[in-house]
Amino acid sequence: MPGWLEAMLGEKFFNPCMIHETSKKNEKNIFCLDCCSSFCPQCLPPHRPHRLLQVRRYVYHDVVRVDDLEKLIDCSSVQSYTTNSAKVVFLNERPPSRPFRGSGNACLSCYRPLQDPYLFCSLACKVKELLRSEGGLWKELRECEYLPLPSSCELDEGQLTPDSILESTSATSSASSGGGGAAGAAALSTVGTEAVSQRKKRSGTGRRGPDRVPGPEMSSRRKKGVPIRAPLF
């Protein structure tokens, strides 16, 4: 196994950096393939010329974007998940959510239920299975001499939003912004009209003035007096 791969799979990410304990965003979420170590964004400048990977968190587990990891190793057989418009794969094995009963597709290493046609649930499970065959892992590796971080890495906290939250917020944001279309304008116009009506009711606008003769509609709206019971004989 290459040194960088063994170090990355055994690394504990998102621990606070001991050098920048008092700084913000001091979680170690960047891995240097050349130094085989992780560090926080504050320690990034000396590692700029090196090959770097940013590790992210998804449902409390470490993930890496497929676009970045595909430059180093083939990930086509590892089940990926789409979040924040990006595909990610888990680095390490996760505890199974339910016992595998022998029906359907499952990970070849840990037997976690999977979707077709994937064979592994994480990168670690694939590496573990390939190490059992001679030369199997090296056939999957790819040469990569340049792997920079995204330009927005310093501002990216590495936290990914689950799809379920994205789907619920996308409809709200599109309705509030209106998309610049007629539907959004109509919705805003309706809301504005209702707000004006409510203000008029609170301020008393539209009530009968001193010189105004009450009409039949206003007479029907008058508050009735206290009813008087007829005497009993």
Automatic annotation (TrEMBL):
InterPro entries: PLATZ
Top-level taxon of origin: Eukaryota
Any one Pfam family match given in the protein's UniProt record, by short name: PLATZ
Annotated stretches, region: Disordered: 167-233
Compositionally biased region (Low complexity): 184-193
Protein name: B box-type domain-containing protein
Source species: Canna indica
